[in-house]
Amino acid sequence: MSRWDGIEAFVAVVRLGTFSRAAASLKVSSSHVSRQVSQLEQQLGTPLLYRTTRQIRLTDGGAIYFEHCRALLDGFREAEDALNALQTQPQGRLALSCATTFGERFIAPLVNDFHCRYPQLDVHLHFTNRTVELIDEGFDVAIRMGVLKDSSLLARRLCDRREYVVGSPAYFQRMPAPHSLSELAHHNCLVGSRDSWLFQVDGRRREIKVSGNWRGNSGPALLDAARKGLGLAQLPDYYADEALARGDLVSVLDRYQFTDTAVWAVYPRHRQLSSKIRLLVDFLAQRLSE
After folding, report:
1. Average pLDDT over residues 232-245
2. Checking CA distances to 290, which of 35, 41, 126, 281 falls within 20 to 30 Å?
């Protein structure tokens, strides 16, 4: 007898409470189940069950063995389910949240491409600059940027992200370009959604609190203010790249640029990742890395 046969029979007996119910679930006879459990006990050299005419109870050793065997069988079933999920088409509701500007420019077109590939999905896109609660608010995936905070969520790095401290040529005609972080105190710093800027000094993360006479929670508005010479701004690459290439903005303090930042997909920590989430995250990672 394969020990696995005995384990399956033993777990079924404990879960269902009787040999007859276990036999029915396994589609064999009660005597066959009883024989498998007895042979398993002989192989292990210890009793697993107390049998009476009225009930079945676990021995101390049986209770320990059951917990381990149950986890093993559950793991095998999850492995089979995961394999089956690979072979099935994703379907059902797929809800995704992302920051507004980045989501509209980069994520929405990719999700639409993904939807063309899997039209049976019911896609819900939600753009907001606040951090949503995935489980409480019913989202499957959120796209987040920068440095992730510790959480119970799983995260997949989709692509790198860089942040620049920038100012316009007109601004630097009035003010000397800063060469050290301490010089930021002498500049008008345009404040976005955070009043501290992130840097890297001697390989360590450092946040510098900044201030100025302009504040806003819109990336495009912050970009426009910097281009018009109102002050310095810290902007991610997807805002600053085109303006830097055209010469509308000039990057400073590059040697302090924080490098450990990225675009992430985060999703709840389920025991089995659904095919729709796995396929979407794989698709976004491939396309964004291009």
Report:
1. 93
2. 126
